[in-house]
Amino acid sequence: MTDVLRRGRASLAFGFLAQGVAFALLVTRIPAVQDRYGVSDALLPVFLAAVPVLAGIGSVTTEQLVKRVRPSVVLRWSQPVVLLALLGVGAGERMVELAVSLAVFGLAVGALDASMNMLGVSLQRSYGRSIMLSFHAAYSLGGIVGASLAWVGAHWHLALWVSYLPVAAVLLPAVLVGSRWYVDAGPAEPGVQGSGGGGEGGALVFKLLLPLCLVMSFAYIGDSTVSNWSAKYLQDVLGSSEQLATVPYNVYMVTTLLGRAIGDFGVRRLGAVAVVRGGAVVAAAGFAVVAVAPGPWVGMLGFTLLGLGLCVLVPQTFAAAGRLFPGASDAAIARLNIFNYVGFLVGSPLVGALGDAWSYRGAMLVPMVLVSLTLVYARSFARQPDRYGGGHERPRTADVGRGSNGL
């Protein structure tokens, strides 16, 4: 393993961590943002929905950009834009300034998420073994750091710009310096046509990518359910105190970090298919425990299981897209990344609507069923396309994609 690859891996991991910090600082201070700009409860969902919609547009745009420039270039310049947009959210005074800042944040996040995972998949290919979960573990660690900083800001009643400015001042130059060591490993088989836009080839690509798109959506529906409803569920349904109701999401974040920190070892030993199946079973069990929990502590156990189960699905979905389309992995990842935002947009309103119309216990069964459907598509995580774009199963020990250079 060369020093170039090691530095590339370390710098990309730091990029994931920085993004986790920035995103957590935004989403955990939404009430403060609402108060600063006087955003009504009726208008707030519009602002919140606009961010993932624009992020999807940013991801689609990135697919076209990487045909002309390297993914590392897109990542190098989108990450500072995200940090500056975050600072704009904290420093603005008028609602139009908030709208512009959130729009820029959304577009840049889409480009950032897509290019970041493109580099992660190409680095994994060069390493010849699973390392994708380690990048997402860095993101989870960044989320914990960002949420902790947000708690400090809220506890001390700091203005948003006071909370955001030191973070931007530290991370912005750090990510620019770190971007010097990003590694673009390139496609494994340039001859494979993985990005056909229409006709028979395009239909074949969509057929191969669709299972991964569904799994990505299911995973983010589950994730958004935890992030948006865990506190309310524990307090209103299971009768916990207000303080205890804040614990499940923190536990979920910590178990997500732990699961991702060790997940690559599981993939190397057991293969991606087994890890994805195991994650889906554990996540479904977590939702089942939450749905039938007699009290808050059992509910807490369910949310703990959810962190351990859901944490492996998204990284392995990106990695599987890279294996399915080794000659066009960038395009596949950009398209797959859109379903990250689809799941985010669908999950929270779906559970809320079902909870109001039926019951929140019953609503928890819906993400349970959706996550369970991952078992149906698990074999897609072991496929390797042939020279005509089709797929066949690879041996379990070769489950991690390898580049044509044999590293």
TrEMBL record:
For the region Disordered, what residue ranges are annotated? 387-407
Return one GO MF term. transmembrane transporter activity
Where it sits in the cell: the answer is: Cell membrane
Where is each Major facilitator superfamily (MFS) profile domain found? 209-407
Instruction: Point to the regions of Basic and acidic residues compositional bias.
Output: 387-399
Give the bilayer topology: Multi-pass membrane protein
This protein's GO cellular component annotations are:
plasma membrane
Q: What is its main location?
A: membrane
| Keywords, alphabetical | Membrane, Transmembrane, Transmembrane helix
Q: What is this protein called?
A: MFS transporter
Say yes or no: keyword tRNA-binding present: no
Q: Where are the transmembrane segments?
A: 12-30, 42-61, 98-119, 131-152, 158-183, 204-222, 274-293, 299-321, 333-352, 358-378
